[in-house]
């Protein structure tokens, strides 16, 4: 048997550079001491806090804004061919890690089931699907003044960064930290007083922000702005910016009917891919192998090949995204199948009821780590022509 601890240090370094996520680097460094010393931990060079007076034009007070990271993991058990999607929150100002409700942004404080506090990684495989940064306001609640955050880091100095934030969802603010000096800039955008920014993301060295009307504001590292027109012209619908492999997607969520079927509002999705050369959005008919997870403040794309027995071209989304139309349980998770145009809450898709951990209460999962027999599916179906 090969002695992996004797691999040349230069080869170990080359291998480690191919690892994209912090968790992969953690597992790499856990093999043995020689592997651990060959490569440093993969860290996000984030400040633990930001002074709010550098963000707002007025002084809010002596309080500061905390930064946290929400990460979506896939936990697989090869022995039972089971997999679970788990959301975890880490705080940069203190050594705290919290389990989140699926596709929501608040902690799972009261669990019906016992969850193991330690996972033996010789029995489980853990894959990072994606992560999102948030900046908290002084009272600890995201979304009041500052919401989602996107980061770009310097290639030459890992301590230098640029951060794009939303201010009350009406304004874009860039906070830059160069050589320890922090500055903020409020950007002059074309969004009207009656429109909000729906999502922001960093992609290939630039920031992107999309508003209610579907117009995308592009911010380069010199703070020069450019704009991409709406692909549909529809206004006041949910919009998400999602990176899917090397593509940037604009996902448009809208209601297709004012009729409520079975107590749930029927929604539809339109998906567009960024055409960087022509600076426009191209319609996408299928996600192919990709699965989208749309949360309150987190949008993640993953390959179906990472899951056991799951096809692609699916969208999982939080019931809180439908609160304008749907007055059911806010912890519901919904499924949209782009192949069949079938949509509905997780509870009517038995094959997905145990997909998330902890499971939504309405999914009625009695044996969360065991398979249960399929039941007759009840779903809400619309024709592709609608």
What does this structure look like?
This protein has 386 residues and is mainly beta. The chain is 6% helix and 41% strand. Strands 1, 2, 3, 4, 5, 6, 7, 8, 9 and 23 form a ten-stranded mixed sheet that branches. Strands 19-18-20-21-22-24 form a six-stranded mixed sheet, with no helix packed on it. It has a four-stranded antiparallel sheet with strand order 10-11-12-13, with no helix packed on it. A hairpin with a 2-residue loop joins β15 and β16 (264-275). 33% of the residues are buried. The model is unreliable at 57-64, 140-146, 258-264, 324-329 and 366-386 (pLDDT under 50).
Please, how many helices?
3
The proportion of strand residues reads 35-45%
Question: Biggest sheet, in brief?
Answer: 10 strands, mixed
Instruction: State the secondary-structure class.
Output: mainly beta
Low-confidence stretches: 57-64, 140-146, 258-264, 324-329, 366-386
| CA gyration radius, whole angstroms | 22 Å
* H-E order: HHHEEEEEEEEEEEEEEEEEEEEEEEE
Let me know the average pLDDT. Answer: 77
């Amino acid at each position: 048997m090969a002695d992996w601890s004797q691999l040349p240090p230069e080869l170990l370094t080359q291998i480690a550079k191919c690892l994209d996520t912090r968790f992969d680097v953690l597992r790499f460094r856990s093999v043995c001491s020689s592997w651990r010393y060959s490569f440093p931990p993969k860290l996000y060079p984030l400040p633990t806090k930001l002074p709010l007076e550098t963000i707002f034009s007025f002084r809010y007070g002596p309080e500061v804004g905390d930064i946290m990271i929400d990460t979506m993991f896939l936990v697989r058990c090869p022995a039972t061919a089971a997999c679970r999607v788990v959301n975890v929150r880490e705080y940069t100002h203190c050594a705290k890690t919290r389990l989140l409700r699926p596709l929501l942004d608040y902690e799972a404080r009261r669990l019906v089931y016992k969850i193991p506090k330690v996972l033996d990684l010789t029995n489980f495989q853990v894959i990072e699907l994606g992560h999102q940064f948030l900046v908290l306001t002084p009272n600890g609640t995201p979304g009041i003044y500052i919401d989602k955050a996107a980061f770009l880091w310097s290639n030459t100095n890992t301590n230098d960064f640029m951060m794009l934030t939303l201010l009350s969802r009406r304004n874009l603010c860039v906070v830059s930290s160069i050589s320890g000096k922090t500055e903020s800039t409020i950007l002059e955008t074309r969004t009207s007083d009656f429109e909000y920014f729906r999502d922001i993301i960093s992609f290939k060295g630039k920031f992107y922000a999309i508003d209610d009307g579907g117009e995308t504001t592009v911010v380069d590292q010199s703070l020069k702005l450019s704009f991409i027109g709406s692909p549909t012209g529809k206004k006041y619908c949910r919009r998400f910016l999602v990176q899917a492999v090397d593509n940037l997607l604009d996902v448009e969520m809208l209601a297709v009917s004012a009729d409520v079927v079975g107590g749930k509002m029927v929604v539809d999705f339109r998906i567009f891919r960024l055409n960087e050369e022509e600076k426009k959005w191209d319609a996408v008919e299928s996600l192919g192998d990709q699965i989208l997870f749309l949360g309150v403040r987190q949008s993640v794309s993953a390959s179906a090949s990472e899951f056991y027995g799951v096809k692609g071209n699916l969208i999982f989304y939080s019931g809180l995204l439908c609160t304008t139309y749907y007055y059911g349980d806010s912890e519901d998770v919904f499924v949209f199948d782009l192949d069949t145009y079938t949509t509905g809450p997780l509870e009517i898709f038995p094959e997905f009821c145990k997909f998330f951990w902890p499971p939504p209460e309405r999914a009625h999962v009695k044996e969360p780590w065991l398979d249960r027999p399929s039941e007759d599916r009840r779903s809400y179906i619309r024709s592709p022509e609608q």
